[in-house]
Amino acid sequence: MNGVLIMMIGVSLVALFLAIISLLWGIKNKQFDDDRKFTILNDSEDALNDAIILEKRKKDALEKKNQKTQP
């Protein structure tokens, strides 16, 4: 019983060590950096204003629908 427990702890420590090494390798090689993501998301001011207007229209339509269904 003790041998199995020691083996499980050893395997867990090896797996933890490999996970930490993989994470550090990914950070070192800039695997988590996404420079293009921020340039794609930069919309023009007009597009952002249009999106705000569209969201307001959706909210107003939903409120009107809810008012009609409630007596």
Features:
single chain, 71 residues, mainly alpha, 3 helices, 83% helix, 0% strand, transmembrane helix, membrane, transmembrane, Cytochrome oxidase maturation protein, cbb3-type, Cyt_oxidase_maturation_cbb3
Task: Report what the structure shows.
Helices cover 83% and strands 0% of the residues. It starts with a helix and ends with a helix. It has 71 residues and is mostly helical. The protein has one domain. This is Cytochrome oxidase maturation protein, cbb3-type. InterPro entries: Cyt_oxidase_maturation_cbb3 (IPR004714).
Estimated helix fraction: over 70%
**Shape type:** elongated
Derived structural class = mainly alpha
Question: Helical region count?
Answer: 3
Number of domains in the coordinates?
A: 1
Q: Based on DSSP secondary structure assignment, what is the total number of beta strands?
A: 0
Percent of residues in beta strands: under 5%
Describe the main β-sheet briefly. Answer: none
Distance between the termini: 69 Å
Q: Estimate the mean pLDDT confidence.
A: 86
- The radius of gyration over CA amounts to 27 Å
Runs in which pLDDT lies below 50 for 5 or more consecutive residues are: none
Helix-strand topology string: HHH
Task: Give the helix/strand layout.
Elements: H1 2-28, H2 35-41, H3 45-69
Short description:
The protein is an all-alpha fold. It has one domain.
